[in-house]
Write a structure and sequence with these properties.
Blueprint (H helix, E strand, L loop, with lengths): L7 H8 L7 H7 L4 E5 L2 E4 L4 E4 L2 H4 L8 H13 L12 H13 L6 E5 L2 H18 L7 E5 L8 H6 L16 E4 L4 H4 L6 H19 L4 E6 L15 H11 L3 E5 L13 H4 L6 E4 L11 E5 L1 H14 L12 H16 L2 H19 L5 E7 L2 E6 L10 H12 L2 E2 L1 E3 L2 E4 L7 H21 L1
Parallel strand pairs: 3-13, 5-6, 5-7, 7-8, 8-9
Antiparallel strand pairs: 1-2, 2-3, 4-10, 9-10, 11-12, 12-15, 14-15
Helix pairs in contact: 4-13, 5-13, 6-12, 9-10, 14-16, 15-16
Organism: Roseibium algae
Cofactor: pyridoxal 5'-phosphate
Keywords: Aminotransferase, Pyridoxal phosphate, Transferase
Length: about 450
């Protein structure tokens, strides 16, 4: 029998498949092993400390090492470590969390359904939309529109909604009935001389043209993030949502707001829906709901969605959908405590207070000779870079900058050649400056090398 590798890095290479990773390159490079975290910082297995500039995966709102969440999980684990919500059964934490989310919703919502990730929440939303169309006697109304550069997950259906090529290549995606309209990224998509409001109107017109070409009676829903996250932190151009929402109402198309990244304070309001005055029929929530301490996500639906679905389940005798861990009591208890912390510490107000310093440093970084554009809102932003020597390989410059950040003590994420910044909501102004000081140094390192 062959001897097993001793180091955690070697064992990882031997046994684990990683998300969003070049598997062969990983065999050569190995992993960064994170062992512990505290506040906005994490530490690797060699004792090196990093600012976690992405809050994990856009998600650790209250920071790492929050003891109240550990204690909430422990209390619930001791009381009821698991139960389900199938077949008329329930438990206290799922009831309390559903009630809490409905009360927090920025527009009237009727019911909450719990899932385990943003992908599952969006996947469930698609199933529910199709179910509703059949319930209404509109079997032809099955097409769903999302946007180029939008990100909605990685299950077969949610990855189809996602408008990024690498989520489709070699996966045989997207599936049928999923369409993609224009990306609202003004900087890269504008025409010569086109001002921002005119670009927004053109995006809205592209959407309406698609609806009319496909047949309004075939379009069931439109999915969109208030601010695009993994597609590069794309901030909607001025007038965009004011132009898009009337079109959805005109053709009676459901609007699903994907709040997986924007929700729970990230944009300076509890929800991105509030930041941009949106009126969705459904909302998908995850990440910040539990600060990702445990897997938890939710789908909120209004009465327009719930009513026909409930009638159809009664006609059939069952709503044939469910996940083993939907509304898991420990995850729900942690989510409830996490939301209490966000409210008690007024982290949404803190984001509004700290945002000017964050955006000032972000846009200052955007003034570097390697930078093409900076964009941000609240406590989320990105700077996009370019250099002629690397222009033939999209993402090559971003990858170099990302590694320079990591070597100097900052964990970020490059989406192509755009570097994202999305720190825990608890970050202080001093720490914001520390983060961007490292970023500036990392960029200078790459600039000199080029």
């Amino acid at each position: 029998m062959n001897q097993l590798p001793n180091s955690i890095e070697a064992r990882d290479i031997a046994f684990q498949l990683h998300s969003y990773t070049d598997a062969r390159k990983h065999e050569d490079n190995g992993p960064l092993v994170i062992e512990k975290g505290d506040g906005i910082y994490v530490e690797d297995n060699n004792g090196k400390r990093y600012i976690e500039g992405m809050a994990g995966l856009w998600s650790v709102a209250v920071g790492f090492g929050e003891k109240r969440l550990v204690e909430a999980a422990t209390r619930q684990m001791e009381k009821l470590p698991y139960y389900h919500t199938f077949s008329h059964r329930t438990h206290g934490p799922s009831v309390e969390l559903a009630e809490k989310l409905i009360s927090m919703a920025p527009v009237p919502m009727s019911k909450a359904y719990f899932t385990n990730s943003g992908s599952e929440a969006n996947d469930t939303a698609i199933k529910l939309i199709w179910y509703r169309s059949n319930a209404l006697g509109q079997p032809e109304r099955k097409k769903i529109i999302s946007r180029v550069r939008g990100y909605h997950g990685v299950t077969i259906a949610s990855a189809s909604l996602t408008g990024l090529p690498n989520n489709h290549r070699s996966f045989d995606l997207p599936i049928a009935n999923i369409l993609h309209t224009s990306s609202p990224h003004y900087h890269s998509m504008k025409k010569d001389g086109e001002i921002e409001t005119d670009f927004a109107k053109r995006c809205a017109q592209d959407l309406e043209d698609m609806i009319r070409a496909e047949g309004p009676e075939t379009i069931a829903a439109f999915f969109a993030e208030p601010v695009m996250g993994a597609g590069g932190v794309v901030i909607p151009p001025q007038g965009y949502w004011e132009a898009v929402q009337p079109i959805l109402k005109k053709y009676d198309i459901l609007f699903v707001a994907d709040e997986v990244i924007c929700g729970f304070g990230r944009t300076g309001n509890m929800f991105g829906t509030q930041t941009y005055n949106l009126e969705p029929d459904m909302m998908t929530l995850s990440k910040g709901i539990s600060s990702s301490y445990l897997p938890m996500s939710a789908l909120l639906v209004n009465e327009k969605v719930y009513g026909p679905m409930a009638d159809e389940s009664h006609k059939i005798g069952v709503w044939g959908h469910g996940y083993t861990a939907s509304g898991h009591p420990v995850a729900a208890a942690v989510a409830l405590e996490n939301l209490k912390i966000i409210e008690e510490r007024d982290l949404v107000g803190h984001v509004r207070d700290i945002s000017p310093a964050f955006l000032r440093r972000l846009h200052s970084l955007g003034g570097h000779p390697l930078a093409r554009e900076s964009r941000g809102v609240g406590l989320i932003g990105a700077v996009e870079f370019a250099h002629e020597a690397l222009s033939a390989t999209p993402g090559a410059l971003g990858g170099k900058i990302n590694m320079a950040f990591q070597e100097q003590g900052l964990i970020s994420r490059n989406m192509g050649d755009a570097m994202a910044f999305c720190p825990p909501l608890i970050i202080t102004e001093k720490q914001v400056n520390e983060m961007f000081d490292i970023a500036e140094s990392g960029i200078e390192t790459i600039a000199k090398a080029l």
